[in-house]
C-alpha cells in the first residue's frame, strides 16, 4: 500500500497527557498549552474530559479551559465524555466534538469506567442519540488493543467487535489505543488487518504509547496499513491513570519529524510545536519526552 500524502494528527497532550500529572496545573497553563498548539498548526486538539473528578481529578477544570481558549477557525476542540452526564456537561461548555471510550479488555474497562465492555457500549447509546440531535460529532476509542495491564496479551480478534460496535453506533472514527505501549510493528500490522475487516481503514486511527520504545515503529507500520490519522502528545506528555507504568503517548514532535521525512503533509510548524512542548515541560518541571525536541534544543 502506498503512503498517504496527508496525515491528520490528533493532539491529545492537554487531555491524555495532563490527566496523568499528580501535581496541580492551573487553568491558565492548560489554556496556554492549547493556544500554543493551535498556533503551531494542530487542527485537532483534545482539550479535556467531562469525567468524574473523583476518578481523574486533573480534568476537573475542563469547562473553564474550554471557555478561556482562543478558538481558531478550522480547529476541532474535543473532549472525552464517558456517560450522558459527561456529554451534557460538555455540551453546556460549548464543546462541538466528543469522544467516547471503550476497551478491548474487561479488566481495564472495569478499572477505567467501572463497567463491563457491553455495559459501556450501552451507556454510549444515549450519548450518540443526544449528539446526533445536537449535530455533535463523536469519535470512539478502544483501549488496550495490543495488551492490557491486568490481562496481558490482547488479540486483534478481541478488538474488532468493539471497534465495529463503536462504528456501527455512529462514531465517525475509531482510534485504537495501545494503552500499555507494549505492541510491536508486527502486532500493529496484524491489528489493522483484522480490524479493517469490520471498520474501513479510512475511519481508523492509531494511538500509541511509547512505554517499550515501539511507538514510532508502530506509526510507520500503521502508515503501511493505510492508516492516516494518529493521536500524539506534545513533549510525549502523559500516561494513563489506569495503566501503571505506561509512559506518555508518542511525542507529536517525533511523529511530525517522521512524517516530514516521508514528505507527508500535516500543516504543523515543527519549531512552534517544539516551543509549545518546551514551555509545558518547564511548567511541569519535567524532562521533555520528545527526542526531536531534545536534539533540537541541544543544537
Ligand atoms: C464513568 C465514571 C463516571 C463511572 O463511575 P461510577 O462511580 O461508576 O459512576 P456513578 O454514575 O456511580 O457516579 C459516581 C459519582 O460520579 C459522578 N459522575 C458520574 N459521571 C460524571 C461525569 N461525567 N462527570 C462528573 N461527575 C460524574 C456522580 O455524580 C457521582 O457523584 P457523587 O454522587 O459520588 O458525588 C467514572 O468511572 C469515570 O469518570 N471514569 C473516567 C476514567 C477516565 O477518564 N480515564 C482516562 C481516560 S481513558 C484513556 O486515557 C485511554 C485513552 C482514551 O487515552 C486511549 C488509550 O490510551 O487507551
Secondary-structure map:
Layout: E1 8-11, H1 13-17, H2 27-39, E2 44-49, H3 62-68, E3 76-80, H4 84-92, E4 97-103, H5 106-113, H6 117-133, E5 137-143, H7 156-168, E6 173-178, H8 185-195, E7 204-208, H9 215-224, E8 229-232, H10 252-261, H11 270-284, H12 291-298
Parallel strand pairs: 1-8, 2-3, 3-4, 4-5, 5-6, 6-7, 7-8
Bound molecules: 3-hydroxy-3-methylglutaryl-coenzyme A.
Enzyme class: lyase
EC number: 4.1.3.4
Keywords: Lyase
In words, what does this structure look like?
The chain starts with 7 loop residues before the first strand and ends with a helix. It has 299 residues and is an alpha/beta fold. The longest helix is centred in the middle third of the chain and has 17 residues, at 117-133. Helix 2 crosses helix 3, helix 7 (156-168) packs across helix 8 and helix 10 runs antiparallel to helix 11. Helix 7 links the parallel strand 5 and strand 6. The protein has an 8-stranded parallel sheet with strand order 1-8-7-6-5-4-3-2. It contains 12 helices and 8 strands. 3-hydroxy-3-methylglutaryl-coenzyme A binds next to helix 4, helix 5 and strand 5.
